[in-house]
């Protein structure tokens, strides 16, 4: 089983870039093949698509082969995968699983309490606490979030302390400095009679590992280290295929699921035409909705395994907690 799993993981990583170039493919990962809607015990390379399209309507280059590197593939309809944003009461102290957000967003979820240099912080997503890179360090964080009636300053619970910048896919350069240098160079070329012209371009953004941020509470007593409906966190663990998981989120409350795919590479829509590519993610089934972003995901022993940040009607996407802790230099 272990050898077989490693083989499928290696093949998935090797083929994810090629598969994501095919029309409609949103994510790739390692999972169990389904036949007639029933899960088998056969490991495969899973391709998640927004909607299944008849082969006759697809060009041959967009067909997903039945096998890759001698291993089976499977196509799963997930619906569009979006960063989850979308109500609850005011909590003091505030536990994990309740409404929170930057003053300029709608609403997200307070994941859990983490520590850096011995100080407590709120852990949630970049797009919840840092408004998808648009916020500034020191900006107010509200609980409940603005969509849920939170107002500044009376409902401010914390200030933004740090976030991992999100890398979005892009086309031509949006860098003013680069474009200015190119314009100057082309002007000089014209003066000297050269027909050669330069063009500023932006390389595709590198893949993200996490959508994560932390905020420092205005007072230590403002935070409850427990998670609503779940209780205390009992350490951390590695998310594994088939693992039973649970979370408490601002919108759907307490829900349970199962990790259906690992090693997931996925394109996530952030609104306004922005798309971010993520690698090394975990995927569970339908256990979240908009506004649950930022939820802490735990296993059956209450060990923290992931940070929920995106999903669709049929899927829930989460960052591996080890990647989150490493990127933000935090611990429990």
Any overview of this molecule?
The chain is globular. The strands form three sheets. The protein has a seven-stranded antiparallel β-sheet with strand order 8-7-11-12-13-10-9. 14% of the residues lie in helices and 38% in strands. Residues 171-182 and 192-203 have low confidence and may be disordered. The two termini are 33 Å apart. It is built from four helices and 20 strands. It has 332 residues and is mainly β. The chain has two domains: 2-77, GMP Synthetase, Chain A, domain 3; 82-166 and 207-328, Beta Barrel (Thrombin, subunit H), CATH 2.40.10.10.
Instruction: Please give the domain count.
Output: 2
Indicate the overall shape: globular
Q: Mean pLDDT across all residues, rounded?
A: 89
Fraction in beta strands: 35-45%
CATH superfamily membership of the largest domain: Trypsin-like serine proteases
Structural class: mainly beta
- Spatial strand sequence of the major β-sheet: 8-7-11-12-13-10-9
- The total count of helices amounts to 4
CATH fold assignment of the largest domain? Thrombin, subunit H
CATH architecture descriptor of the largest domain: Beta Barrel
What is the top-level CATH class of the largest domain? Mainly Beta
Low-confidence stretches: 171-182, 192-203
Helix content: 10-25%
Count the E strands.
20
